[in-house]
Amino acid sequence: MRKTGKIILSLITVINVLTACINNPEKEHQGTINLEHLKHLYAAVTLENRKDVGVINIYSEYPDYDFEVEPSEGFTCVDDVARAMMIDAIRSSDDEELQAKYDLMAEFLLYMQAENGYFHNFIWRDLSINKTYRTSLAEPNWWSWRAFWALSNYKGKDQQLVEKTDQACERLAENIFHLYLNQPLSTDTIEGVEVPNWLPLGTASDQAAILILGLEAYYQQVIKDERALQVIERMADGLLLTQKGDADIFPFGAYLSWQNMWHAYGNSQAYAMLKAGQLLDREDYIESALLEIDHFYPYLMKENFPAYFSINKVDGRFEIIDQQQFPQIAYGFRPLIWACIEAFTITDEGKYLWRAEEIIEWFSGKNIASQQMYDQATGRCFDGIISETEVNLNSGAESTIEALLSLQAFDQIKHK
Fold it and tell me: Which residues, 6 or more positions from 143, have their beta carbon under 8 angstroms from its beta carbon?
């Protein structure tokens, strides 16, 4: 099977090279990842304490792709900077300019860590921290988990900065251990659907997935603290309970995201379960992830990738009680691609690589709007599809970064 997988990789490499040459006949092929728009979004700023940090502008508006500031939140955030730090073309680059940007982004995350160990998310245009708006509070939420994931994966060459990122991770890890190792393993029933109540925000399995990934990196690269494994196991056991249906019964092994809802954005549960299964030697976690990839992903593709749905359970059957097709955004596709690529890496079964190839075609125009979403020539990815005929032509941080992370998964496979 391994030999077959390598043949497939060779064919895909040839196809990618030919495609790039056709799209850019006057240039040599230099890979699918173009950092130019991300560099446009990047800025080095000097904070009140005269500290230099690197940030990513959140909003970049069509047609000139100038920047905008969200009035309740700010102009840059931990969420996006942390994700940008996970782009291998930046964090593993030998280019001094990119390495400097990477280090300055790490400095930004460190600056945003509050006294309580969690992270604020946004800063205002005047470079002060937004400490009051609900999406910027220093609390156990998305932005803290993303900062934890990025800093635990920090690969810089500055040893002093390595020590600071490790210390920041250890501070947050203590919070995580205190909070989740003491959490009662209780459940809730919402619209007849049983869900765990020991995950972040009680039922947020989407956040639990990011927390698993951060803890896995923390254990592997910062300190081998057995408590990290215990929390991973608790989170993964919770994800098992959020998985509904099976190969033949709707929703075909999908992990619910929060309460009785599934949504596309941040749907990293299958990828996290594959990582947890390998780390903890839990085959049941891996099989659970493959169930979703094998049966729910084809359902999503057949349905043209709905944005979200919520379900109830009546007479033993799960039924959709609300569903929306839009918006479709890059952040709804990158997690699927990562899970498929990881499944291929574990099983060496070519079907997972082909599925990843099918899903990533959303970026090149095989989507409900028949619109190319990622432009390799500029490195821009449009912010989303909002109807069958309308595309949001802005190209902000999240869409740009998630597109690059999607393409990165294939580059990683080629070099294995």
Answer: 77, 78, 79, 82, 119, 120, 121, 135, 136
